[in-house]
């Protein structure tokens, strides 16, 4: 994956973290950890916090599932889910081509899990229900 595409994916996470008009330390740290795994430096992430890149198309189903899961994790990392974050994650899901019913089902299932962290296997099952 190109550096620009990786930075665009991190930018999506940053936009979601900003959705409730505040970025918590846990959100910032989580995004920094994900960025390090993607070989994006702290300085690059800090620059993206100031000027996020626009979203890039995600073509494969696996990439959409992984990216949507990361968005869910950022939304939940501070233990608070704000309505603006829910609206923003729905917008990202629609941009990625995820069916609205699948997004709603995923968001509704969050409360079924400790810390509202839906397991990746459950996320895949939901995607399979709507796409197979």
TrEMBL record:
Q: Which domain of life is it from?
A: Bacteria
Gene3D superfamilies, A to Z: TerB-like
Database matches in SUPFAM superfamilies: TerB-like
Question: Under what name is this protein listed?
Answer: Co-chaperone DjlA N-terminal domain-containing protein
Which source organism does the UniProt entry give? Answer: Aureitalea marina
């Amino acid at each position: 994956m190109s550096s620009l595409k990786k930075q665009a994916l991190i930018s999506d996470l940053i936009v979601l973290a900003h959705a409730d008009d505040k970025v918590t330390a846990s959100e910032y740290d989580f995004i920094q950890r994900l960025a390090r795994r993607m070989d994006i430096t702290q300085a690059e992430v800090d620059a993206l916090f100031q000027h996020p890149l626009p979203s890039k198309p995600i073509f494969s189903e696996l990439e959409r599932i992984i990216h949507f899961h990361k968005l869910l994790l950022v939304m939940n990392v501070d233990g608070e889910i704000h309505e603006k974050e829910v609206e923003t994650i729905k917008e990202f899901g629609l941009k990625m081509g995820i069916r609205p019913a699948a997004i709603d089902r995923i968001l509704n299932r969050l409360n079924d899990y400790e810390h509202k962290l839906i397991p990746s296997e459950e996320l895949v099952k939901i995607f399979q229900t709507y796409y197979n």
